[in-house]
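Dear colleagues,

As part of the handover before I leave the project, I'm documenting each prediction I ran so the next person doesn't have to rerun anything. This entry is a single chain, and its sequence is reproduced below.
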Amino acid sequence: MKIKYDVPIKKLSPLPLDGIFSEVIYLESLKEVIEFLKEEKEYYFLGKGTNTLPIVSRVNTPLVIWKNSEILINEKQIIVSGNMAIGEAFQKARENNFSNFIGINTIPGTLRYYYRQRIRYSEDKYGEGKPNLNRPAALVWVQDSKNVTLDNIILYDSMSWTLHIECCENITVKNMVIDDNRHVANSDGVDINASDNVLVDHCFISCADDGIVIKNPIRTGRAMTHVHVKRCTVVTVMNAFKIGTETANDISDILVEDCTFCMPDIYPGSVSGISLESCDGTNLSDVIIRNITMDKIICPLYICLNKRNRYNEPYTDKVGENRYWGGSIKNIRIENIHADNAEVPAILTGYETTRKDGSVVRRPLENITVSSYHVVYRDNEEIVEIPKTFDEFLEDYPESNAHGDVDAYGIWARHIDNLVLEDINVVPRSCNTRKAICLYDVNNKN
């Protein structure tokens, strides 16, 4: 199924907080919606469940209401528009065994209303006595679907995840623009959960949270494989490309290539360019990331295995019996990386700890290759406070900026079996006092 219509690319304005409209136009069918979109006029568009309502002021613009927010296609596919309708319709779709479900949270999102009183968090993060707001659904949600193409679409001002793909097969996302407010928490660009054979090609993504992120939470109960990301530009405050967190089921065969990650206007830059994380039990394997250009990315490369245990698996002495001791990360190849204006080194780490009886549990990264890795630091002043011992980071939320200072400026690696480093060239700040590379408990290194 393709969601692609012969309609000029245009932005649909979300409703203002107040307004008495010059006219109200009701549309009964999807065909009428498409025909209306072709008209060259300005208007506001309202799907069922949109939580912005006009009040008081007069607006010389028509209000368009799509009455049929639930449209059946071929009796086995469903499209739903409107934030409040998505959850209800999703349940209906599953009850009736619809093969495809696509939720559209009224493109564009209702961000201006939702975050009118606070731009950053929906909860009362700073104890200001403000009421908590419910975190909204994704702007576009594709669930349990096969053979779907999203092509030549603009999504903007999402108040949560922008495009959410879960438990799907054969999905193509191409020529998409995601333009979110880069100060809104949880506004990921593209989230791919438990889906196979997904292609993300030639997309521009600007958002506050992770740009392109692969997850496999415990609720899916399935492994995922074959995700290909290429020719994308990602501008984000957080991680440009990330695998994790909340990844309990296995993830394999991931290819990311020919992309640009940057942060042109918020200092000091994106948190990371590439983050590969297994902290809640996933076995992550067979990942290739190549031909990546970065600018103003704080940490170009971060790989972390720990035992955060988000799903509260019970303690066991036997590693691998459940997810208590985490999962694994192996067969990772990072090549041809060029990064300017970096701030911290690449961090690659497994972990080591002990059982209740005092015996050692060592969980290394396995078969990690980094080649043609060329990084230039931003040449500003630095204050480095290197601890006497480095925390094992066993149960923390994995983030490159949470580790603190380390004693290398280029690559800092710990608990790895079979690490290959080839053609590593990192130019530090002129005031640098640290070594280029530090390896701790790294076996079979080259």
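The chain has a mean pLDDT of 81. Helices lie at 30-37, 83-95, 111-114.

All the best with the project,
I.
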